[in-house]
């Protein structure tokens, strides 16, 4: 039972990291768009 709970927590932690990474990519893309618009 403990192993199942531990594995579930590890899976949730890894999923959260991937979500945060994806969010960071989105923020970077928005920043690039704003920067490009500012140069025009």
Secondary-structure map:
Layout: H1 2-39
GO cellular component, one term: membrane
Keywords: Cell membrane, Lipoprotein, Membrane, Palmitate, Signal
Protein name: Entericidin A/B family lipoprotein
Question: Tell me about the biggest sheet?
Answer: none
List low-pLDDT spans.
none
- The general outline is rod-shaped
Query: What's the mean pLDDT score?
Result: 79
Strand percentage lies at under 5%
Helix amount, in percent? Answer: over 70%
Count of helical stretches? 1
SSE pattern, N- to C-terminal: H
Alpha-beta content class: mainly alpha
* Termini Cα gap: 60 Å
* Radius of gyration from CA coordinates: 18 Å
Q: How many runs of DSSP E, i.e. beta strands?
A: 0
Structure description:
Residues 1-18 form the signal peptide. It comes from Undibacterium nitidum. This is Entericidin A/B family lipoprotein. The chain is an all-alpha fold. It contains one helix and no strands. The chain has one helix at 2-39. The longest helix is centred in the middle third of the chain and has 38 residues, at 2-39. It is rod-shaped. The model has no long low-confidence stretch (mean pLDDT 79).
Structure, briefly:
The chain is mainly alpha-helical and 40 residues long. The protein is built from one helix and no strands. The chain is rod-shaped.
């Amino acid at each position: 039972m403990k192993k199942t709970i531990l594995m579930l927590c590890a899976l949730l932690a890894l999923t959260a990291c991937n979500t945060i990474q994806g969010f960071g990519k989105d923020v970077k893309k928005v920043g690039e768009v704003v920067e490009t618009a500012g140069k025009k």
